[in-house]
């Protein structure tokens, strides 16, 4: 999904006040249309997204100037800033799938065109979406023809009169293969019962052994082996990241708790939501830094993308939105620094 703020217009309201409208061209899988949005609508979308994802990683949302908002140079400058904001926002693979994004950019009004361009993945029943904005709050029902996923049903709302607050989210329609999907999820959950996170590096001594790094996820296939000298310690497993298999020292794994694969959205969550994730609060968990962070306050520590850190016990966690960590060496055997790091800078490999 690509959006381009092509130009802007200065209009007058009924009470003779001027306001700016931005003309936005949306390209969704080759289907192109144009929408008009005011700055206030874009800001409202940003505020909505801030409640469910960590928008800080996409940069600050452009603010209005105290004076000169309607000057051409200021309008153009803000247009460029808004374009940069949406480029960063939509570069995250998950974001274009959020319902708030789909409704704001009116993707739901163009399901038929998108469906036809994709060769008929979706079929519209009950009614066709109309391009005219006179069709206010029209319901479009979407059903699955041959998909194993659920497709959301949306209310189409007039963009000139709508407030994203209060839009009723209709229930989803289960696909004919939803039982199969549920069975697959059950199998995946069972599979994860044998997955553990590595707490230290392991290097293969020969072609029968497995090499992995601290933080990697290892699926245990067989516990113990009669072919090894230390049969109680050497297990056989698979590195989830690349699929390679071999023997390894089980003492390199955190066997205290099965690894639970996080939902993709957990990487984007804001501080309040992210802090409720059990995997983030787990004492002693090794995390990988997602993006560089430069210490800004007392007690904080600077870290770089790819560095590994260990979360210290909950009893020592005193800052909301931060985690007290130890920064580890590449081998995870030595502590090179310690301090607070914002929660959103941490992620599970």
UniProtKB/TrEMBL annotation:
CDD domains annotated for this entry?
Answer: PX_domain, SH3
Q: Which UniProt keywords apply?
A: Cytoplasm, SH3 domain
Q: May I have one GO cellular component term?
A: cytoplasm
> Does the keyword section mention Cytoplasm?
yes
Q: Which InterPro entries match?
A: PX_dom, PX_dom_sf, SH3-like_dom_sf, SH3_domain, SortingNexin/PXDomain-PKLike
For the region Disordered, give the residue spans: 165-190
Spell out the SUPFAM superfamilies in the cross-references. PX domain, SH3-domain
Entry GO MF terms: phosphatidylinositol binding
Tell me where in this chain the PX domain is found: 1-112
Q: Where in the cell is it found?
A: Cytoplasm
Keyword Cytoplasm among record annotations: yes
Q: Residue limits of the SH3 domain?
A: 191-258
For this entry, the protein name equals: PX domain-containing protein
> Which source organism?
Naegleria fowleri (Brain eating amoeba)
């Amino acid at each position: 999904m690509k959006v381009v703020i092509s130009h802007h217009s200065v209009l007058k309201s009924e009470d003779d006040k001027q306001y700016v409208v931005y003309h936005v061209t949306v390209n969704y899988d080759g289907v192109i249309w144009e929408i008009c949005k005011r700055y206030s609508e874009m800001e409202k979308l940003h505020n909505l997204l801030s409640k469910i994802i960590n928008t800080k990683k996409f940069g600050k949302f452009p603010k209005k100037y105290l004076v000169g908002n309607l000057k051409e140079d200021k309008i153009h400058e803000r247009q460029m800033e808004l374009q940069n904001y949406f480029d960063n926002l939509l570069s995250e693979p998950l974001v274009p799938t959020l319902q708030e994004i789909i409704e704001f950019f009116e993707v739901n009004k163009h399901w038929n065109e998108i469906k036809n361009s994709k060769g008929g993945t979706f079929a519209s029943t009950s009614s066709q979406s109309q391009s005219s904005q006179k069709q206010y709050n029209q319901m479009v029902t979407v059903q699955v023809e041959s998909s194993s996923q659920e497709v959301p049903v949306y209310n189409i709302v007039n963009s000139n009169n709508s407030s994203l607050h209060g839009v009723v989210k209709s229930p989803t329609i289960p696909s004919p293969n939803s039982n199969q999907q549920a069975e697959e999820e059950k199998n995946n959950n069972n599979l994860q019962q044998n997955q553990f996170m590595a707490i230290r590096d392991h290097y293969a001594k020969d072609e029968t052994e497995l090499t992995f790094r601290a933080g990697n996820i290892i699926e245990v296939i067989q516990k113990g082996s009669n072919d090894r000298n230390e049969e109680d310690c050497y297990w056989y497993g698979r590195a989830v990241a690349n699929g390679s298999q071999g023997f390894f020292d089980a003492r390199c794994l955190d066997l205290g708790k099965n690894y639970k694969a996080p939902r993709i959205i957990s990487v984007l969550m804001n501080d309040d939501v992210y802090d409720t994730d059990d995997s983030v609060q787990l004492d002693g968990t090794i995390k990988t830094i997602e993006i560089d962070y430069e210490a800004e306050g007392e007690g904080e520590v600077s870290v770089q993308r790819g560095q590994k850190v260990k979360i210290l016990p909950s009893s020592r966690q005193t800052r909301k939105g931060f985690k007290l960590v130890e920064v580890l060496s590449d081998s995870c055997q030595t502590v090179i620094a310690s301090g607070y790091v914002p929660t959103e800078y941490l992620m599970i490999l």
